[in-house]
Structures are given as structure tokens and as C-alpha cells.
Specification:
By secondary structure, the protein is an alpha+beta fold. Strand 9 and strand 10 form a beta hairpin. Strands 1, 2, 3, 4, 5, 6, 7, 8, 9, 10, 11, 12, 13 and 14 form a 14-stranded mixed β-sheet that branches. The radius of gyration is 21 Å and the shape is globular. The chain has 2 domains: about 170 residues, 3-Layer(aba) Sandwich (Aminopeptidase); about 160 residues, Gcn5-related N-acetyltransferase (GNAT) (Aminopeptidase). The chain is about 35% helix and about 25% strand.
Length: about 375
């Protein structure tokens, strides 16, 4: 049967686009549904400010008038201008194991990119590295973490058949939480506290975090400048990002270090794994799903690291160890057994050495692919 590609141009088609992964992944034990309230805002051009500086296209593949796949294309003009790249991106791609459907979808975005005058198509990659990126190529038997892609093994295999090759890998470490913080970390921790004029901030309420959101994200902009696909936050985007994630976070797992004048020098943000709660409520937070998510957060045995950064001139002074010790202390107190590092670029040797010094082992690998157009 012929495959028809239709552009998503109305609310009905967008609803189909958002709901399709749940059908494709029915019975996929590791799949975690999106938070649908969040997805509706993410794909809304009036609410997601990333659309202001990007060309985008969303498409569905239909077979016998039934949806059998989806894809999104993005050209991030702001990032291309800053990096010197001339790339389009594909993301949020879902299909069953059917090369014909896969080919129709990826070819559609390739042709769209050619008409826009780009040189390459890369992906899976969203508006920036803050969105899920890369097809999973190792660790298919491991549970999925929020904000990372869950795909079947056939997805990267079909992409390779379309002429795509590796651009960059991201690795994920699993770290066993010790029963007590190791002595060598405690020694570095005490020395760092003595040698630096700093304040270590810990939190019990989201209200106390809000005044620090913009300073933290400004530091993130400073420290992530060399990270592939990172797109710095504009001031107007910071509140949107905070509103998206802050309600899900546990304030206990946000650690911030400032100087004596209150300037943010470093931070780490982690959250107990809430995947079981999202699965239980099927991605529908309201009206009662939020309670399932909160319950999952309380019972979680895994802590997911989300973001962290240290001001350049304060690196190598033990601030990372201070934040690590404080995070370990909270995790031990709450019965956390494992840490998931989230995605780290394979080329980020300094961070990878720190993960491995803590006993971390790579247990997942995601790959961003590329093809010259």
C-alpha cells in the first residue's frame, strides 16, 4: 500500500502526532509515556519560544489512512549562526519496524532540509541538547529515565540503512550509592570548605529556589558553551524552562554554592526517578496523576542527575566534591541506591573521569547520527 506523508497543520493532527508513540510502544516494558500536558505545551508555537528562532515541520506517515509513523524537522538558525553549522535536525521520530515507512519519513525531512538550503541532517536532536537526543544503541534492557529517548533496536538499524553514520555518542553512567560517603571524598570536601570563601545552599521548598533560577541558568549558559548542540537560554526562556521542570523536582536534591556576596559559583540539580509514577498515570498528571508521581518520587531508589555546572575560575577547587558529598548525604538519608548520570558527551573526559572515580560504569549509550544532503 502507498504511504502518504501529511504535514501536521491542525489540532487534530497534532493530537494524533502526540498520541502515536503510546500505540507504537504498547507492550514495550521499558517505555515511559510523556507527560502529555507538557507535550501539548512543547509543540505549541505560542507557548514554546524555541519556535521563534527555528524553522520546523511536523509530519505523520499514513498507511490505509492510519498513522504508522511520525517525525519532526528543525533548523535552529540561532545555533547554526553561533556554531557555523548549516544543519537541519530530525527528532521525535517513531515508527514500527518497517523500512518503507521509515524511509518515507526521513526522506520527507531530508527534502525539506534541501529546500531550506542546509548541508546536513543530524539527529535525533531537538531544539537543543536540553531536549531528548540520540537513538539508544546500548542498554535496551535498562529502565528509561525522564527526558531521554526510548527506542527499539530497529530504529538506529533502519537509520543506518538510509545512509546515516555516527556524529557523536552520549554515554550514561550508573553509580552505586555507598552506605557512607567515602573517606577520600570527605577529606577533599573538608579541605575545599576551608580553602574557599563560599556558602553551600540546600533547600526544602521550591519557593526558596525561585530567586536563584535565573542566576543558575546564566551560569549554565557560561559553562555549556562548548557542549555540542547547546543553545543558551535567553532571559525570557528561563521561566519557561523552570515552569516545565520545577514542579517535578525535589528541592532536597538541588545544591548551590555561592560566594559570600551571593553570586552563584556552582550548582547541581538531580531528581528521584519518577518513571513508575508517570507509567502509573499514563502520562496524565491531572487531576490525580500528580499523586502517583509524588508517591513514585518518595519510593524511588534511583536518583537522576539532570544538570550541573561550575564557574570556570572555580574549577579544580573542590566545589564539585562539595556538591557531590551533599548529594550523596541526601541520597543515603532517603534510601537511594543508584545514581544515573544522564547523558554525557563521550568527549567530555573531565566529567567522565569524575564519574568513574565515583565507581560509575557506562550502562547506556545514545548516538546522534548525520548525513550529508
Amino acid at each position: 500500500m502507498d504511504i502518504k506523508i501529511v504535514e501536521v497543520t491542525n489540532r487534530k493532527l497534532l493530537h494524533t502526532f502526540i498520541q502515536l508513540p503510546a500505540i507504537i510502544h504498547a507492550g514495550h516494558t521499558n517505555w515511559v509515556p510523556p507527560i502529555y500536558m507538557d507535550d501539548r505545551s512543547f509543540f505549541n508555537k505560542k507557548k514554546n519560544k524555541s519556535f521563534l528562532y527555528c524553522d520546523t515541520i511536523l509530519a505523520l506517515a499514513l498507511k490505509n489512512d492510519k498513522p504508522v509513523g511520525r517525525i519532526m524537522g528543525i533548523i535552529n538558525h540561532r545555533y547554526n549562526k553561533a556554531s557555523g553549522d548549516n544543519d537541519a535536525r530530525f527528532c521525535f521520530m517513531e515508527t514500527w519496524d518497517n523500512q518503507e515507512v521509515f524511509h518515507a519519513l526521513i526522506s520527507f525531512v531530508e527534502e525539506w532540509g534541501r529546500k531550506k538550503g542546509v548541508d546536513n541532517l543530524v539527529g535525533p536532536l531537538g531544539f537543543s541538547d536540553k531536549d531528548p537526543q540520540g537513538f539508544l544503541i546500548e542498554g535496551f534492557d535498562e529502565p528509561v529515565v525522564l527526558s531521554s529517548i526510548c527506542n527499539y533496536p530497529y530504529m538506529p538499524e533502519m537509520l543506518i540503512k538510509e545512509g546515516y553514520s555516527k556524529k557523536v555518542d552520549c554515554v550514561v553512567y550508573k553509580i552505586v550509592v555507598p552506605e557512607v560517603v567515602p573517606e577520600f571524598y570527605q577529606a577533599i570536601y573538608q579541605r575545599a570548605l576551608r580553602n574557599n570563601q563560599i556558602k553551600v545552599l540546600e533547600f526544602t521548598s521550591r519557593k526558596d529556589i525561585k530567586p536563584l533560577i535565573h542566576p543558575v541558568l546564566r551560569l549554565l549558559n557560561e559553562t555549556f558553551t562548548d557542549i555540542y548542540a547547546f543553545d543558551p537560554f535567553e532571559e525570557r526562556e528561563m521561566n519557561d524552562f523552570a515552569n516545565r521542570y520545577l514542579p517535578l523536582l525535589d528541592p532536597e536534591y538541588i545544591k548551590i554554592i555561592t560566594d559570600l556576596d551571593g553570586n552563584v559559583l556552582s550548582f547541581i540539580i538531580a531528581m528521584p526517578d519518577i518513571s513508575k509514577g508517570i507509567i502509573a498515570c499514563k502520562g496524565r498528571v491531572l487531576p490525580f496523576g500528580i499523586f502517583q508521581i509524588i508517591n513514585a518520587r518518595k519510593k524511588a531508589k534511583q536518583l537522576n542527575l539532570l544538570l550541573g555546572g561550575i564557574k570556570k575560575e572555580y574549577r579544580g577547587k573542590g566545589l564539585d566534591v562539595i556538591m557531590g558529598v551533599k548529594t550523596f548525604e541526601t541520597a543515603i538519608k532517603n534510601g537511594i541506591q543508584f545514581l544515573d548520570s544522564h547523558l554525557e558527551l563521550e568527549t567530555n573526559i573531565l566529567v567522565r573521569k569524575e564519574m568513574e572515580r565515583m565507581g560509575g560504569v557506562v550502562y547506556k549509550r545514545f548516538r546522534v547520527f548525520q548525513k550529508e544532503l
